[in-house]
Structures are given as C-alpha cells and as structure tokens.
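Q: How would the structure tokens look for this protein?
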Amino acid sequence: MASFWTWAAAAILYAVFLAWHQNWRGRLSPGEIEATLAKLRAQGAGDNGRNDLSTLKAFLQADDGRPFHMLNVVRLASGPVRDPLGREGSARQVMAGYTRMFLPALLARGGYPAFAARKVGGYFDTWGVEPGPDWSFIALMRYRSRRDLAKLVCDPRFSGAHEFKFAAMPQTFNFPAHRLGGLMIQPPVWVAIVLGLAAAVAQIGWLLTGAGTAQ
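A: Here is the predicted structure in token form.
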C-alpha cells in the first residue's frame, strides 16, 4: 500500500505542475483583446513612445493558444542612474526594482526565465544591419499563453515598476517566438523524470526498510 501512495503522490504533484504550466483556457476571445487594449489606452501605454499597441493587438488577435518565449535584448546603462524614487545606483540595482515585482507575477501565471546570457564578445558573422548598441545581455522569458501576457501588461501594479526598467535600460528590443527544437529538456519532461525517480527511490527505501524490519 505504501508503494501505491508513493506513486499516487508523484502523479498528483505532476498534475498540479501541469495545471500551473499549461494553458487550459484556449485562445483569447475578441472581447478579451478589446478589454486589454482599452485598459492599456486608459493607462497611457501607447503614449510613452515605448509600447506599440498595434503590434500587440496583432499578436493577441493571432493567438494560437500555445505557449511562447519572449526574446529580450538589453543594453544596461553603463554608469550610475537614478530610479523613479530619486535613489542613485547601478543599472542592475535599479533594474532589480522591476524584476522584484515582475518575476513573482510571471511565475504565478506559469511563466519563468527560460534562459539568460551575458554578452562576452564583439559582433561577428553579422551583416545587413545597422551598427547596433553595445548590448549587455539577452533573456528568454517563457509565457504560458498570450492571455497571460495580456493580463501582465495591463496589471496596474506594474505601472510604476516599469519606470525602474526604463531608467536602467536606455535601449532594448524584444519579440515573441515559438520553440522549433533543441537539446534543452523542457520542464514537462524533466519534472516527470524527477518525480518518477523520487517515487522510485522512495519505494526502494520503503522496501529495504520493510525487508530489514521483517528480518
């Protein structure tokens, strides 16, 4: 019986993980899209010169219900900067004022940082583009769905948080992308492996303990 409960617990934990990780609500409805854009317009998101609401609208209207990754290419300010509260610090310190609020909200909606890397060299194998800034790092953020992105971008809690990002990042660009493949193991796979191994080890431990007790 203990063996059964070990595997049942692993199955329940995996079901909870999938409930958080996967999009079970399907595509955005036209009403949801219009409500999102109305909230953003009311917040003045299209008036700051940083957000293109027409591009966002087209992306939401093309919702396929699948998760996606947002590629962010960032140049941090090289010297000290002032945050929206007037405090001076490095760009990374000021940027932390945004990530402290953004990451918990992203995680709550089945998203997470999938990959991040710091630039360590110059540009090569590069042509056909204008000379770019001295980018600092890239970050690949996983979103569970376009609905979750819509909820996050119009969350009023972030209206002030974005000012920290604007202060720390003089230049950036991003775009959404779908995964085509690769050797990196995706969470639904490695979580299943980890839970399966944990259940197997627990079962072996129970059997050995039971065998020792029987002797």
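The first strand starts at residue 68 and ends at 75.

The helical segments are 2-21, 30-42, 53-61, 91-108, 146-153, 158-168, 187-214.

Upvote if useful.
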